[in-house]
């Protein structure tokens, strides 16, 4: 019924044509911008950093935003903030709660500092031009809406909501170029693909809800057993992920005729509750 972890991502043709177009869009517009905001998912700071973006924007000043910080382990986010700040061309790293808007003022101040640096070295003064990049469903549109103070970009909980490039003007006159989320053609590490899928950056129907939910239960049972037990009222967390999935289904009453487990509903529930932060504040990749 369930696939082994290292086979789930193999041989999947999920790199559609719009990903190629997004890459070309970034390349074509990069010369027009002064700095780049790269937004990554605080829960998976490695898996949500696209190596293609690294290559494309090399040489441009970069501000890294750790989005969805309200869903991640605070202690781990602090470690990641320090670690990512050591990257080439990185001017600033900051964690943001895009739901509450916490730390948006700090990001605006960082952008103002980039504006001042540009004005010092250029005879022609103009508002800063910024490009925002990241994988699908990482929170780019929510960040843009916070920066502009209005609903400028469409948001959604599924990958692929942003359709094309959008030039937007911030309240301070700066210009911001939004780009669609971009993934890359092949995952060298299957765990990267799973992490992206757990967080909703890859469409659920590519891997299948019940298999993806099973893999998430396996990971949470290993790394966050107490949170898993508390959320689903489990007497204990087994080393067997399928046993845990069965127990979660029974606790929630996800039983079909003939006393069969409804794995589809169980998988969907665990995925949705993880993504919504209902299981707890979880970081799947540690800074160590």
Description:
Helix content is 42%, strand content 12%. The chain is of the alpha/beta class and 288 residues long. The strands form 2 sheets. It has a 6-stranded mixed beta sheet with strand order 3-2-1-4-6-5, sandwiched between helices. A two-stranded antiparallel ribbon has the order 7-8. Strand 1, helix 3 and strand 2 form a beta-alpha-beta unit. Helix 9 crosses helix 10. The longest helix is centred in the middle third of the chain and has 18 residues.
Strand order of the largest sheet: 3-2-1-4-6-5
CATH class of the largest domain: Alpha Beta
CATH architecture annotation of the largest domain: 3-Layer(aba) Sandwich
Please identify the oligomeric state: single chain
Molecular shape: elongated
CATH superfamily of the largest domain: P-loop containing nucleotide triphosphate hydrolases
Annotation keywords:
288 residues; alpha/beta; Rossmann fold; Conserved Hypothetical Protein Ylqf, Chain: A, domain 2; 6-stranded mixed beta sheet; two-stranded antiparallel sheet; 12 helices; 8 strands
Short description:
The chain is an alpha/beta fold and 288 residues long.
Topology:
Blueprint: H1 5-8, H2 17-29, E1 35-41, H3 51-56, E2 62-67, H4 74-84, E3 90-95, H5 104-121, E4 129-133, H6 140-148, E5 166-169, E6 175-178, H7 190-198, H8 204-207, H9 209-223, H10 225-232, H11 241-252, E7 255-256, E8 260-261, H12 263-275
Parallel strand pairs: 1-2, 1-4, 2-3, 4-6
Antiparallel strand pairs: 5-6, 7-8
Helix pairs in contact: 9-10, 9-11, 9-12, 11-12
């Amino acid at each position: 019924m369930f696939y082994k972890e290292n086979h789930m991502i193999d041989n999947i043709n999920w790199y559609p044509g719009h990903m190629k177009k997004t890459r070309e869009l970034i390349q074509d517009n990069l010369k027009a911008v002064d700095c780049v905001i790269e937004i990554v998912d605080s829960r998976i700071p490695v898996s949500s950093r696209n190596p293609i973006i690294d290559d494309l924007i090399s040489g441009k000043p970069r501000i890294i935003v750790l989005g969805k910080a309200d869903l991640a382990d605070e202690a781990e986010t602090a470690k990641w903030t320090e670690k990512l700040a050591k990257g080439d061309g990185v001017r600033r790293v900051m964690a943001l709660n895009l739901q509450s808007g916490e730390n948006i003022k700090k990001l605006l101040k960082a952008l103002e500092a980039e504006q001042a640096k540009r004005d010092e070295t250029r005879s022609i003064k103009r508002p800063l031009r910024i490009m925002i990049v990241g994988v699908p469903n990482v929170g780019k549109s929510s960040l843009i809406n916070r920066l502009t103070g209005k609903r400028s970009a469409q948001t959604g909980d599924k990958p692929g909501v942003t359709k094309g490039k959008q030039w937007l003007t911030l309240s301070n006159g700066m210009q911001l170029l939004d780009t669609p989320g971009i993934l890359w053609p092949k995952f060298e590490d299957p765990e990267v693909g799973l992490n992206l899928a757990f967080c909703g950056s890859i469409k659920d129907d590519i891997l299948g809800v019940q298999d993806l939910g099973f893999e998430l239960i396996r990971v949470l049972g290993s790394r966050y057993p107490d949170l898993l037990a508390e959320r689903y009222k489990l007497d204990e967390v087994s080393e067997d992920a399928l046993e845990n999935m069965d127990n979660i289904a029974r606790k929630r009453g996800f039983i079909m005729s003939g006393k069969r487990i409804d794995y589809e509903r169980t998988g969907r529930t665990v995925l949705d509750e993880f993504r919504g932060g209902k299981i707890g504040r979880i970081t799947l990749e540690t800074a160590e």
